[in-house]
């Protein structure tokens, strides 16, 4: 069901949330093959930042009563997607993922970033009472 901005019943209805969750699942699957010595460093970092994108979107939904707080949490989500992109690029440099996987993930996070920035620009539509 297509909903207009601000008319979603839940953060789970937001396309940006759905895409962030799907990407974090892909990150989880890809990192299963990372070396064991990366378990408490790169693997942990990339999984945490990728999961945090969706978590920040969910938290922003709960802060819609205050537009500035809503925007702040969306900004945090955007920062987390940038951090995840950094870790993806590090993973390529370490030869843990290939260029194709990297490009696909980066493209996905770029799309999430654009959606987040659109929400920030239209925050008043989401925060209407």
What's the SSE blueprint?
Layout: H1 15-31, H2 42-62, H3 67-93, H4 99-121, H5 123-127
Helix pairs in contact: 1-2, 1-4, 2-3, 3-4
Share in helix: over 70%
The rounded Rg comes to 15 Å
Question: What is the oligomer described by this structure?
Answer: single chain
Our estimate of the beta-strand percent is under 5%
Helix-strand category? mainly alpha
Distance between the termini: 22 Å
Number of helices: 5
Poorly predicted runs of 5 or more residues: none
Give a verbal description of the structure.
This protein has helices at 15-31, 42-62, 67-93, 99-121, 123-127. The chain is mainly alpha-helical. α1 (15-31) packs antiparallel against α2, α2 packs antiparallel against α3 and α3 runs antiparallel to α4 (99-121). The model has no long low-confidence stretch (mean pLDDT 93).
Compact description:
The chain is mainly α and 129 residues long.
Output the keywords:
single chain, 129 residues, mainly alpha
């Amino acid at each position: 069901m297509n909903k207009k901005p601000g008319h979603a019943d839940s953060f789970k209805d937001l396309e940006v949330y759905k895409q962030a969750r799907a990407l974090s699942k892909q990150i989880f699957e890809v990192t299963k093959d990372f070396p064991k010595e990366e378990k408490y460093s790169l693997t942990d970092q990339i999984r945490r930042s990728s999961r945090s994108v969706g978590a920040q979107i969910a938290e922003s939904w709960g802060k819609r009563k205050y537009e500035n707080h809503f925007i702040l949490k969306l900004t945090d989500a955007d920062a987390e997607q940038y951090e995840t992109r950094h870790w993806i690029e590090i993973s390529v440099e370490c030869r843990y993922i290939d260029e194709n996987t990297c490009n696909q993930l980066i493209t996905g996070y770029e799309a999430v970033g654009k959606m987040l920035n659109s929400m920030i620009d239209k925050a008043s539509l989401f925060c209407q009472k």
